[in-house]
Amino acid sequence: MPSIAENVAAVRARVDSAAQGRRVLLVAASKMNDAARVKEAVAAGVDACGENRVQELVEKNAGHAYDGAPLHFIGHLQKNKIKYLVGVADLIESVDSEELVELIDRRAGRLGLTQDILLEVNIGREAAKSGLAPEELLKTVEFAAAKPNIRLRGLMAIPPVTATPDGARPYFAAMRELFIDIAGKKYDNTSMDFLSMGMSGDFEAAIAEGANMVRVGSAIFGARDYSRPQGR
Ligand SMILES: *Cc1c(COP(=O)(O)O)cnc(C)c1O
Predict the structure, then answer these.
(1) Using a 6 Å cutoff on CB, does residue 52 contact ligand 1?
(2) What share of the chain is helix, strand, coil (3-state, %, to 5)?
(3) Using the 8-state DSSP alphabet, how is residue 132 labeled?
(4) What gap in Å lies between CA 125 and CA 203, rounded to an integer?
(5) How far is ligand 1, taken at its centre, from the CA of residue 196, in Å?
(6) pLDDT of res. 228
(7) What distance in Å separates the CA atoms of residue 185 and residue 187, rounded to the nearest whole number?
(8) Element (DSSP H or E) covering residue 138
(9) Does residue 232 have a pLDDT over 70?
């Protein structure tokens, strides 16, 4: 089995080839991988680590798993977990309501810091998925732009599962449209730097459609074993 370092090198080569000279950040989506494995990915030069579960993030952070790489939160965000993330995660990618924006701003203000966030868009309008509906996005951007302790850095999406990687391309393209539209409006406290989309199965298609941040898990760490007890 190839090592994590070999996988990171292979993924990086594919990312660079799809990027055609553009800079694309590689985020290692490390859910269910322990601190030692995360450290291997960091040592191999991923640009950031992305965690889904707050408890895992807190535990692995205590084990210094992410030292040397920025830490992103990419999972479903619950308001009672915000206190563990603000000022700890360098980027919270999965903000999807005005209420969460409000609570993050308040917490960041109390800590005297500015929290970088992305807004997550439910670009496929799937009932079971989190994320803002595309038509709610502008209103939420304006809401976030008025918050002094938040800096909106871009957008994130997880498109519907499709039979082929290219099946997701229309969703990726729709995200790029939203991204360009917001960037053109020049809101306060907003800098549209990151368009985070693309995972192991489709990151090349996402990059071709304008992603500059991809979140890759299984292609780096191997398949996740969901049969093992999680305890969380
Ligand atoms: C797990 C996960 C990924 C990575 O998925 P892979 O298919 O393993 O690459 C990316 N983004 C989010 C939000 C995830 O939860």
Answers:
(1) yes
(2) 40, 20, 40
(3) B
(4) 20
(5) 11
(6) 65
(7) 6
(8) helix 137-145
(9) no
* Atom of ligand 1 lying closest to residue 31 CA: 1
The residue whose C-alpha atom lies closest to atom 6 belonging to ligand 1 is: 217
Element (H, E) at 94: strand 91-95
Of all protein residues, whose CA lies closest to atom 12 belonging to ligand 1? 74
Atom of ligand 1 nearest to the CA of 52: 15
pLDDT in tens, 62-104: 999 999 999 999 999 999 999 999 999 999 999 999 999 999 9
CA of 217 to the centre of ligand 1 (A): 5
Cβ of 76 closer than 6 Å to ligand 1, yes or no, is no
Which atom of ligand 1 is found nearest the CA of 93? Answer: 13
CATH tag, 4-221: 3.20.20.10
Is 159 near ligand 1, meaning CB less than 6 Å away?
no
**Which whole number is the average pLDDT over 22-42?**
97
If phi > 0 it is left, if psi is from -120 to 50 it is alpha, else beta; for residue 189 that is left
For residue 121, give the 3-state DSSP assignment: strand
Whether 230 has a pLDDT exceeding 80, the answer reads no
Predicted TM-score (pTM) of the model is 0.96
Are 131 and 123 contacting, i.e. CB atoms less than 8 angstroms apart?
A: yes
pLDDT in tens, 119-128: 999 999 999 9
Query: How far is it, in rounded angstroms, from Cα 192 to Cα 219?
Result: 27
